[in-house]
Amino acid sequence: MLNVNDLCHHIFKPPPSIVVSHYIFGMVFARFFTVGLNQFNSNFNY
Question: By CB distance 3.0 to 4.6 Å, which of 6, 14, 28, 39 could disulfide with 18?
């Protein structure tokens, strides 16, 4: 069973690698989302 202190530490202070991977994933997702949205708008205008 996990300790409450350990659980809070894990939730509020995740390891840096997880933060970096989430940040990179967010950037890539936002890039693909905006590109897809622009493509959809350009197709919709025709």
Answer: 14
Say how far apart CA 6 and CA 1 lie, in whole Å.
Answer: 11
Q: What angle do CA 35, 36, 42 make, to 5 degrees?
A: 90
Give the range of the structural domain holding residue 27, as residue numbers without chain letter. 14-45
Whether 1 shows a pLDDT value over 60: the answer reads no
* Alpha carbon separation from 26 to 6, 16, 20, 35 (Å, rounded): 27, 15, 10, 14
This prediction's pTM: 0.44
Token pair in block for residue 43: 């197709």
